[in-house]
Specification:
It contains no helices and 11 strands. The chain is mainly beta. The relative contact order is 0.32.
Length: about 120
């Protein structure tokens, strides 16, 4: 399976961005999906996750109420809507899924929030 993330960019604090992750190779509906991020000098952290049919979602405390994860299994795409962005949200964002205990990552997309 291959994941391709895009939609990052530079935005002012308080602004919004929408990230997309396109999957190919396997039916997306079989797998839970997630978005992670990694800021310079920090470990990669889970930002948001969504179950295979989108019924359940989970968010890091730092993004609750500001970010929304969603998915469209028909187009094999997972989204991360990010509102009210803060400078501390600056990071490379990665989409992720796990198949048989193997991690698959997208190539990452840079999000930079200026103050």
């Amino acid at each position: 399976v291959q994941l391709q993330a895009f939609g990052g960019g530079v935005v002012e604090a308080g602004g919004s961005l929408r990230l997309s992750c396109a999957a190919s190779g396997r039916p997306l509906r079989k797998y839970d999906m997630g978005w992670f991020r990694q800021a310079p000098g920090k470990e990669r952290e889970l930002v948001a996750a969504i179950t295979r049919y989108g019924r359940n979602t989970n968010y890091a405390d730092s993004v609750k109420g500001r970010f929304t994860i969603s998915r469209d299994n028909a187009t094999k795409t997972v989204y991360l809507q990010m509102n009210n962005l803060r400078p501390e949200d600056t990071a490379v964002y990665y989409c992720h899924l796990m198949i048989a205990l193997i991690n698959y990552w997208g190539q990452g997309t840079q999000v930079t929030v200026s103050s």
